[in-house]
Amino acid sequence: MSYRTTRRQVLSSAIVASVSSARLTVDCAQAAEEPLSGAFSRNNLYFGSAVRIEEVVRNQDFRNLLLHECDYFTPEVALKWAAVERSPGSFNFTSMDALANFALANRKRLCGHTLLWHKSVPHWATALLFEKDGWRIVQRYFEAAFSRYGHAIDRWDVVNEPIETGYRMDGLRNSIFLQAFGTDYVARALWEARQLAPGAKLMINEFGLEYDLRVEHDRRYHLLKLLERLRQAGVPLDGIGLQAHLDLSKGALSADVLGRFLKEIADLGLFIVISELDVKEHEYILPVEQRDNRVADETRRYLDIAFGQPAVRGLITWGLSDRHSWLQVTQEDVARYPNAWKDGSTPGVNRGLPFDYSLKPKPMYRAIADSVRRLR
After folding, report:
1. Closest by Cα among 317, 149, 350 to 248
2. Which domains does the chain have, with CATH numbers?
3. Nearest C-alpha neighbor of 161 from the set 139, 135, 189
4. Vertex 296, ends 292 and 300: CA angle to 5°?
5. How many CA atoms lie within 13 A of 99 on its CB side?
6. Is 165 within 8 Å of 218 (Cβ atoms)?
7. CB of 270 closer than 8 Å to CB of 305
8. Contact 78, 52 (CB under 8 A)
9. Under 8 Å between Cβ of 353 and 299
10. Angle subtended at Cα 18 by Cα 17 and Cα 21, rounded to the nearest 5 degrees
11. Cα 28 to Cα 226: distance, rounded to the nearest angstrom
């Protein structure tokens, strides 16, 4: 069933009216600046954000900001298996249809995020995957996604987070896919995707690869070994998504370690996308200005290293503003400062994205802009 022939049937009229006719009327503080999408495109890169279409529909100011700054959208949830096939063989692509419609109407590009992820398997599928022909339900999901959006999506995160350290010699996560299909499931998924989308760019997306820590060293090592095995076997893999969930509690970034890792990926003939950038704060007791500067400094350090590798093609932030961030100030964060906020105030939200809760640009926005403009 193709997206072109069915979208009028599945999209609600309210969503279509809201997003397909969107026009850019930016009146926020950054309007006088060149948008990030412009700065990136002049350096043959792209900039984008993870998006939930429901937030786009509800908030015109947020919608305008997305259109002003981004040329690429990643569906945060709308394409994941557990979200679209809640009962066997019954697909609900309403949210993804709306996002695709919004993107196409405004000449934006889309990432197909994500197909196989151990945290997004429909509950009904867990037993069926272990049957003799269990792969058939994976095929059905792939076929539904590619046939519907193959014309609109040119880059797919086929396998998400396949690496787990400390358990297996090959570093593969002991996920339901590994248990059901064995160590070849990553290659099998990529071959399946290539058959359904011969012209698309196929990717593996992974997290926890940035810092000079033992666990992240091991994850980098095992990911590189997986990539080497796939390349040697001729498996269709085009690029790697590095999630880049930066964390101010993890210590300093190492330009030598990270730069060498990026080069090793590039030497395998793979392109790189910074696919889910955001920053988890640590010292919430500091004034907001200092917190924002620390987030910006970490972002700048990371991007100055990353953009030094020509194989990097683009940057996607995991959300555009703190209003929609998945990162939270946790009870553990607050507990580090037992004598703080006794007056009833709070540390507020985690401030790890380019725009604040009110959609005003922060120092992180400037850090991103400066990093890409230094490439000229």
Report:
1. 350
2. 3-373 (3.20.20.80)
3. 189
4. 175
5. 28
6. yes
7. no
8. yes
9. no
10. 70
11. 45
This prediction has a pTM of: 0.92
Q: What is the pLDDT along the chain (376 residues), one digit of tens a residue?
A: 343 434 333 344 444 444 544 444 444 444 447 999 999 999 999 999 999 999 999 999 999 999 999 999 999 999 999 999 999 999 999 999 999 999 999 999 999 999 999 999 999 999 999 999 999 999 999 999 999 999 999 999 999 999 999 999 999 999 999 999 999 999 999 999 999 999 999 999 999 999 999 999 999 999 999 999 999 999 999 999 999 999 999 999 999 999 999 999 999 999 999 999 999 999 999 999 999 999 999 999 999 999 999 999 999 999 999 999 999 999 999 999 998 998 889 999 999 999 999 999 999 999 999 999 998 6
| b/e burial code for range 133-144 (CB count within 10 A of at least 16 → b) | eebebbeebbeb
CA angle 267, 273, 277 (to 5 degrees): 130
Q: Which amino acid is at 89?
A: G
157 CB-near residues (< 8 Å, 6+ apart):
111, 112, 113, 114, 115, 203, 204, 205, 241, 275
Residue ranges in 185-330 assigned as alpha helix (H) = 185-196, 214-232, 255-267, 288-306
Q: Rounded to an integer, what distance in angstroms lies between the CA atom of residue 348 and that of residue 62?
A: 20
Strand partners, 204: 159, 240
Q: Where are the beta strands (DSSP E) in the chain?
A: 46-51, 72-75, 109-112, 116-117, 153-160, 201-206, 239-242, 245-247, 271-280, 312-317
What the block records as the tokens of 50 is 């993870």
251 with 326: CB under 8 angstroms?
no
**CA dist., res. 324 & res. 311, Å (int):** 30
